[in-house]
Amino acid sequence: MVRFADGGERVPASLPEWLQWQAHRQGEGIALRHKRLGIWQARNWAQVDAEVRGLAGALQVRGFAGDAQLVVLSRPRPEALLAALAAQWLGGSAALLDPLEPAAGQQELLRELQPDFVFAEGLEELERLRGAGVAPRLAFYADARGVKAQAGEQDYARLLAGSGAAQTGRCAFAFYRRGADGRRERQQISHAELLREGRRLVQAEQLGADEEALAARAFAAGGQARYLLAPWLIAGFRLSFPESLATRDNDRRELGPTLVAGTRETYGRLYAQVQARLPPPGSAQRRLVDWALARRPGLLRQVLGHWLVRRPLRDVLGFSRTRAPLLVGEPLPQDVQAFFAGLGVTVRAWPDPAEWHRPSAHPAPAVGGWLADGSQPA
């Protein structure tokens, strides 16, 4: 049981309720950071809670209620996360779409969904929405640069006003893809599932409020929701966003996160970057690197290898302080796993139990499941 700002005590049953709890427990503590124009901007838990309440109020005024769905078309940034939490605050869900996916396929999906409510990162995402011929009741955006708003479009900053009564819906996030037969498939993740997996991770990795995590990948994947967003709210640590995907590696080095929730592609990309910068095989410098990374006991290797090779390489990768390196989804290739192990970075695998199913004549709806035609479970 936890005590909320309204004086009541209950077990938080959704992501927004955990946000309320953290705002009550550590309102002045840093919740989010986002790098803009080279400077880290911070929001504390009380500010995040107030911003989500304001967004919820604005959405509620415009008719968002019950099991409505907010489509989020954005790279990782605070506004996208807070918009999703605002939708969940009102009992709805957020469908997370990755703007890096091909435009044609995504526009086809948008035409099928015909969303009434959309959060688009900026001009590029708005143009993708317009190109799909979709006319949502409300499309709001965080980056106003170059945007000439059309009917139904509004700047995020101007949308903040009012407050909405918190509700607890069952579905938190929805994800879409095309099946082998070309039909749209949908996966839903409930609040209960997110909180169950989030608690398991927090306990297993002993995560606390002093952790620092970087949200460098798109949120349009269930693993990020399970193993990054839910633990952030449960443990109450700091979640940071890079200035852009192009700067994420530099921002990681500057930040030095203690928690990294990456995929096979994340670790593989970092491994390839290091391999490209290593001295040529056979050189004296390369022999030193290979000697330091070899998995053999010995005090000399441990001490000299750490100061001469392992520590500098960890600094280059942004893993200088990382104590919880997590792998979500597919396992790493053996050479990549061995490389990080040689650095003293023991990457621990956490499964991504996403199940995508073929359409059936009589689908069996279930919380945390999906319906192939995109409809809500009963």
Automatic annotation (TrEMBL):
Gene3D superfamilies: N-terminal domain of ligase-like. Residues 19-343 form the AMP-dependent synthetase/ligase domain. Coiled coil: none annotated. InterPro entries: AMP-dep_synth/lig_dom, ANL_N_sf. It comes from the Bacteria. Pfam families: AMP-binding (PF00501). This is AMP-binding enzyme. It comes from Azotobacter beijerinckii. The lineage of its organism: Bacteria, Pseudomonadati, Pseudomonadota, Gammaproteobacteria, Pseudomonadales.
